[in-house]
Write a structure and sequence with these properties.
Elements: H1 3-14, E1 18-26, H2 29-39, E2 55-62, E3 69-75, H3 84-100, E4 103-107, H4 114-123, H5 139-150, H6 159-169, H7 176-186, E5 190-191, E6 209-210
Parallel strand pairs: 3-4
Antiparallel strand pairs: 1-2, 2-3, 5-6
Length: 222
């Protein structure tokens, strides 16, 4: 992926409405050939003249079961100077998805929430704590339980203050509890405004919410 495509992917991946992302989705070559012929456009082909499949950057699956629907998105940089040939290929792509009844659109940097993307990227390494060091194998699970029990009951003003308080009580000094907090954020068990540029450690506890009761955290940090 290009940097821009990667940022758009992260944003889509975080979106609760998006249940699957299919990247560089190939279009049916026979159908795009028919569209190209109808438009009088030369279909993309290899150097020996063999037509090759067009692809759509992102085919998003939105919702589940009865509400499930598809959305197709092609990413182009905002300052791209789309030449005539590029526009021709995009028109083939647009008409292809129109025949499928699928919403298609071109997206660029203006469609990306860069603050949200940076926040989500900062949590990627904490979605799974397997392999991360801790004083004892059980430490992260115990700290997750302690965090949930004290969340909302502790007088610490910020997330960082609460984590440091727990670390102090357990005799820890390497931000282990903040590792757990970021794990809970990555798993959406701890919710906050991801469009807020404030560092997570400085966020007021009043602006965060826990989505699971303390007795449900046994597997939260495994």
């Amino acid at each position: 992926m290009s940097d821009g495509e990667w940022r758009y992917f992260i944003q889509c991946d975080w979106d609760d409405e998006v249940t699957d992302i299919r990247e560089q989705f190939p279009l049916d070559r026979m159908e795009t050939l028919k569209i190209a012929n109808k438009l009088g456009i030369k279909h993309p082909a290899t150097t020996d003249g063999t037509p090759y499949p067009l692809t759509t950057d992102f085919l998003l699956v939105l919702g589940k079961n009865e509400t499930r629907r598809l959305t197709a998105r092609t990413y182009k940089m905002k300052d791209d100077d789309l030449d005539e040939r590029t526009r021709e290929k995009l028109e083939i792509e647009r008409r292809y998805w129109k025949t499928k009844g699928v919403d298609w659109a071109m997206v660029n940097e203006t469609n990306v929430n860069h603050v949200l993307v940076r926040n989500v990227e900062s949590l990627y390494g904490f979605h799974d704590l397997t392999g991360l060091s801790a004083p004892e194998p059980w430490s992260f699970q115990q700290l997750a339980r302690e965090f949930c029990e004290r969340f909302g009951a502790d007088d610490a003003p910020t997330l960082g203050d609460l984590c440091r308080s727990i670390d102090a009580d357990f005799g820890l000094s390497n931000d282990e509890t903040f590792v757990v907090a970021r794990h809970l954020l990555a798993r959406k068990m701890l919710l906050t405004d991801m469009s807020d540029p404030t560092p997570f450690a400085l966020r007021s506890l009043a602006g965060l919410s826990l989505t699971l009761p303390s007795e449900s955290v046994n597997g939260a940090a495994e």
